[in-house]
Amino acid sequence: MFEERARPDATVDFSITKHEFLDSTPLYQWKVLICMGYSAEEVADRMAIHDLIATYVHAIDDGRYDDLDQVFLPETLFDLTSAGSVLAHWPEVKEIYRGNSDVFVKYFHLYGNLQIKFDETRSTATMQSKVINPIGVNDEEGHLRLFQVHGVYDDVLRKTNEGWRITNRVWLQGWISGDYPFAGGPAEIGKAR
């Protein structure tokens, strides 16, 4: 059992080259992660993947779809069929997201519980994450309708020269709660325009 509590002012020699993202993490967090059995390099990869997901969440919620080109590759395959949507590559999915921006007037992803598993070389990884997505749409009378979509993303990632990228994404629809305005289910969303 690890009894010593790491302090932010503690000093530890990690014997690694300093990177900007390493410098931004409090030292006590690094000590805890290394005590969990992760190498400093694996911690850096895990943090880079968490940063990738933060980029995704902020870009999609803010409607900055071109920024998502830093998250997905052009050949990234999306399987969104469990929500009544498409099986398509990133360029087509990006246009669907862009086209639905007039339907979704409020968008706010809560994304967590990432389970990341690396291959032996840490050049690819699988990741499963839980997502709650509060959404607001205006109904035909112009009233704001708020609901939440709950589900799981199953992702495959690859480490590229530009950093980690998602190469395959499967959405596993859980349930929808709240004032859901589409009687025909998720497939009706695109018809709301």
Query: How many domains, in number, for the residues?
Result: 1
Percent in strands: 35-45%
Main beta-sheet annotation = 7 strands, mixed
Task: Report the total helices.
Answer: 4
**Secondary-structure element pattern, one letter each:** HHHEEHEEEEE
Q: Return the CATH architecture.
A: Roll
What's the end-to-end separation, in Å? 57 Å
Would you count the extended β strands for me? 7
The averaged pLDDT comes out at 84
Provide a descriptive summary of the structure in words.
- The chain has 4 helices and 7 strands, in the order H-H-H-E-E-H-E-E-E-E-E.
- The termini are far apart.
- The chain is an alpha+beta fold and 193 residues long.
- The protein has one domain (20-192): Nuclear Transport Factor 2, Chain: A (Roll).
- Strands 1, 2, 3, 4, 5, 6 and 7 form a 7-stranded mixed beta sheet that branches.
- 23% of the residues lie in helices and 37% in strands.
Task: Name some characteristics of this structure.
23% helix, disordered N terminus, alpha+beta, 7-stranded mixed β-sheet, Nuclear Transport Factor 2, Chain: A, 193 residues, 37% strand, 4 helices
Short overview:
The protein has 193 residues and is of the alpha+beta class.
Write the layout of secondary structure elements.
Layout: H1 20-23, H2 27-35, H3 40-61, E1 72-79, E2 87-89, H4 90-99, E3 104-107, E4 110-118, E5 124-138, E6 144-160, E7 163-178
Parallel strand pairs: 1-7
Antiparallel strand pairs: 1-2, 3-5, 4-5, 5-6, 6-7
